[in-house]
């Protein structure tokens, strides 16, 4: 089964999304899963992992409610207050009641650099590892990848997922690409780290100002560093709407991945997500 490992839903009446202001343009409205399901079906995606979009429990409860209504949802990356280790056990107990919850994420790219390195957060990460949950890691820019290397060293049993390949400098020059690659390579040395081929938009000007040829070198680098068995496809809807739409990204990645051996392509398009998020167990 083809799995989209990075899909969002949000409801402005149920949760707060401080980053989702009117400046977000077409994204500043509710986005329900019913809107994207026909497109997923049309391109052959059979399952999706919903990923948190707000640092509050209401967002996770929204995703749980959506999953109960839609069997297409095969996993949920939710949220717990990592800076409050006194509250994390109860939060994890609540999420343990929902077998579809397979990972945890915070919007660390909206927080001060190094936030996850705090003593409280570090204690909470140990609890995530003990619970068998992964940590998804979004970045504002590639520099934050260095934080993930340190986290992996402190928590060797914690599964780590780099969202959007760590925001590669698409549209910049070779020097910036080399810096990104070096940082991503350091993360890839951790065998429990994987990455999402998702959210690959232009880092310069209009997010939609990308081409297949501008994406290809970064995907090729990721394939070399992680291998297909540690990469997973993500459509990043509805954010993809500002970068040309879901189908445009799907077609581009399909073109880039086409030369792979079918078995390797199947890993990126589903097999890796099944293993990393242990979807066969939910």
From TrEMBL:
It holds the Pfam family Amidohydro_2. The lineage of its organism: Bacteria, Bacillati, Actinomycetota, Actinomycetes, Micrococcales. This is Metal-dependent hydrolase. Keywords: Hydrolase. GO terms for molecular function: hydrolase activity. Belongs to the metallo-dependent hydrolases superfamily.
């Amino acid at each position: 089964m083809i799995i989209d490992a990075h899909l969002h839903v949000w409801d402005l009446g149920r949760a707060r999304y401080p980053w989702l202001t009117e400046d977000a343009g077409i994204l500043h409205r509710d986005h329900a899963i019913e809107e994207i399901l026909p497109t997923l079906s049309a391109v052959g995606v059979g399952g999706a992992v919903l990923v948190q979009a707000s640092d509050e429990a209401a967002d996770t409860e929204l995703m749980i409610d959506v999953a109960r209504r839609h069997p297409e949802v095969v996993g949920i990356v939710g949220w717990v207050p990592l800076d409050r280790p006194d509250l994390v056990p109860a939060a994890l107990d609540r999420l343990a009641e929902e077998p579809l919850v397979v990972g945890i994420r915070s919007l660390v790219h909206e927080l001060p650099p190094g936030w996850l390195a705090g003593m409280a957060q570090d204690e909470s990460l140990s609890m995530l590892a003990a619970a068998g949950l992964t940590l998804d890691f979004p970045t504002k820019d590639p520099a934050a990848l260095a934080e993930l290397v340190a986290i992996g060293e402190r928590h060797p049993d914690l599964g780590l997922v780099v969202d959007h390949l760590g925001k590669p400098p698409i549209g910049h020059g070779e020097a910036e690409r080399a810096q990104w690659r070096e940082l991503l390579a350091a993360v890839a040395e951790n065998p429990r780290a994987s990455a999402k081929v998702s959210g690959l938009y232009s880092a310069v000007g209009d997010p939609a100002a990308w081409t297949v040829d501008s994406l290809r070198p970064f995907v090729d680098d990721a394939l070399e560093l992680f291998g297909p068995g540690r990469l997973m496809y993500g459509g990043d809807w509805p954010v993809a709407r500002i970068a040309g739409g879901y189908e445009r990204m799907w077609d581009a990645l399909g073109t880039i991945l086409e030369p792979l051996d079918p078995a390797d392509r199947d890993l990126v398009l589903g097999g890796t997500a099944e293993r990393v998020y242990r979807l066969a167990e939910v």
